[in-house]
Write a structure and sequence with these properties.
The chain has one domain: GMP Synthetase, Chain A, domain 3, CATH 3.30.300. The chain has three helices and three strands. It is an alpha+beta fold.
């Protein structure tokens, strides 16, 4: 198994758009840390404001998770929102284990 490339992660994240500002999260410098361990990626990010509407916070977190999982070679991803008043709830929701299709 080969290591997932940081450039592939960066490319996927550049497609995630902040729904309020209409700009990529990479341009807004919202990504704080990315850790690649084999096929697993952990990413920490913050939002432009600690009281960003929860619907936008969850959408951005979900878009980041989906974007990470779309990168070839990524088998799992953990997304962590920091500095938001509902960060714990958003993190819990976005990192729920995937349910197998029935």
């Amino acid at each position: 198994m080969s290591q997932v490339e940081q450039s592939a992660i960066d490319s996927a994240m550049s497609k995630i758009i902040d729904p309020e500002l209409g700009r990529p999260i990479t341009d807004l410098k919202l990504i704080d840390k990315t850790l690649i361990s084999g096929s697993v990626v952990e990413l920490e990010f913050h939002l432009t404001a600690p009281f960003c509407p929860p619907v936008f916070a969850l959408k951005i977190a979900a878009d980041i998770k989906a974007g990470l999982l779309s990168v070839p070679g990524v088998s799992d991803a953990k997304v962590t929102l920091r500095g938001h008043y509902l960060a714990e709830a958003v993190n819990k929701q976005v990192n729920k284990p995937r349910q197998p299709p029935q």
